[in-house]
Amino acid sequence: MSNTRLPGWLSASREFLIPLLALLVLMAVWEASARLFAIPEYLLPSPSRIVEDMAAMGGQQLGEHMVATLRTVLFGFFLSIAVSFPLAVLISSSRLAADAIYPLLVLTQSVPKVAIAPILVVMLGPNEMPRVIVTFLVAFFPLVIAMTTGLLAVPSELIELARSCRASKLQELFRVRLPFSIPFIFSGLKSAIALSVVGAVVGEFVAAERGLGYLITSATAFFKVPVAFGAMLVLALLGIVLFQLIVVAERVFFPWAAAEERR
């Protein structure tokens, strides 16, 4: 009995079509429930009402809020990469450094970011820098852990082979440890980009003049609940798009690492 195979284009787009179909079903159930049970819009607005209010706000205004949040997310994300890589290399290369740095990393994560954000605003002023730092603090910890785990997960046989070929520490890092740790690094990058969106919104809740987080707080203050829901959905969409960009980058530049993760 022969197996029925899906067409190539359908098989390739399966990962996109199934979540999209599930989302459409969810929206349809949401819309029907809001209308059938006459749920007040200040409790749970229907998707059609959300779209209507967001359209009335204007694309230019919504775009300005999106760009402001996206800029904070990307600044914080790339800053987390710039700091996490040298920290991971230092931790993985020295037991003494690991013992000294790990408690400090845990300390940065034990303090709620909502408590840090107002202090940063007082120290640095009501500009974008406090929001970027909050985003960085939220995103960099899982990235450091993932990078360190990957650098330490290299089989000892590969390290011994590199050293028998008289490879320097730098060659060992870039030719052995880093290629082996690519799946770990991209796993950390995916977590970091998702958390960057959360960190940016936390910063905007505390002090911002624009951004999707600011839009949520200002809309709820004036009981414009559909607009707040719309901003929340845009945030979710932004997080999904950024996450998928990391996935695509991994599959394009490191297809073997993406195949390893799917096992």
Describe the structure.
This protein is mainly alpha-helical. The chain has a single domain, classed as MetI-like (MetI-like fold, Orthogonal Bundle). The protein has 12 helices and no strands. It is globular, with a radius of gyration of 23 Å.
Structural topology:
Elements (H helix, E strand, L loop, with lengths): L7 H5 L1 H23 L10 H11 L1 H35 L1 H16 L2 H12 L3 H25 L3 H9 L4 H38 L5 H10 L3 H29 L1 H7 L2
Helix pairs in contact: 3-11, 4-5, 4-7, 4-9, 4-10, 6-7, 6-9, 7-9, 8-9, 9-10, 9-11, 10-11, 11-12
Query: Uncertain runs with pLDDT below 50, 5 residues or more?
Result: none
Strand content: under 5%
Class computed from helices, strands and strand pairing: mainly alpha
Gap from first CA to last CA? 27 Å
Instruction: Please tell me how large the radius of gyration is.
Output: 23 Å
**CATH architectural type:** Orthogonal Bundle
Enter the CATH topology name.
Answer: MetI-like fold
- The helicity comes to over 70%
